[in-house]
User: Which sequence fits this backbone?
């Protein structure tokens, strides 16, 4: 049972004034402890969509402020032909830095070798696809049948059994499923 002398009404409590002595007597006694203000949590709240955005280092290296281009290659289309057509249509030159997806076949040649090019039939998983395409004539679009690759594309891919193929692209590289080429324009 509550004793009547333990109940304190809100109107009977004293409030601090601008007098420093009064503040010391209210908070300085041993029966009252100074309450700490509640600290606000730092950072983002749990479950919020305000995620940390990492800086795009590619834009700083490029100098033009352009980011990477993602070129989706449709099934049964040639990667090289699609990339070159994209460059000519948009009048850009670029470095291909990677590719992701599955290819059905690729024509490979070995650099500095007298062996003829060979066609590897897949499906294969792309591991690496790099090269540079320089669009020398930015104002004329020609057919892709006479593509001149002065700087060849190199490719690396694996089979389902773990066999790895690496070489210079000497012909067509046919997309099989969900191929995306990443390039940086210059």
Assistant:
């Amino acid at each position: 049972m509550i004793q009547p002398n333990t109940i304190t009404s809100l109107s009977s409590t004293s409030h601090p004034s601008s007098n420093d002595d009064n503040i010391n007597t209210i908070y300085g006694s041993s029966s009252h402890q100074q309450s700490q203000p509640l600290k606000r949590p730092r950072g983002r709240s749990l479950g919020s969509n305000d995620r940390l955005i990492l800086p795009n280092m590619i834009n700083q290296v490029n100098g033009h402020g352009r980011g990477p281009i993602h070129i989706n290659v449709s099934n049964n289309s040639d990667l090289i032909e699609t990339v070159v057509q994209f460059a000519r249509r948009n009048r850009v030159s670029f470095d291909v830095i990677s590719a992701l997806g599955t290819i059905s076949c690729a024509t490979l040649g070995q650099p500095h070798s007298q062996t003829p090019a060979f066609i590897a039939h897949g499906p294969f998983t792309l591991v690496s696809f790099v090269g540079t395409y320089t669009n020398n004539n930015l104002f004329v679009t020609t057919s892709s049948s006479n593509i001149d690759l002065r700087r060849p594309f190199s490719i690396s891919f694996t089979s389902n059994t773990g066999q790895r193929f690496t070489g210079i692209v000497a012909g067509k590289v046919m997309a099989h499923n969900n191929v995306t080429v990443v390039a940086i324009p210059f």
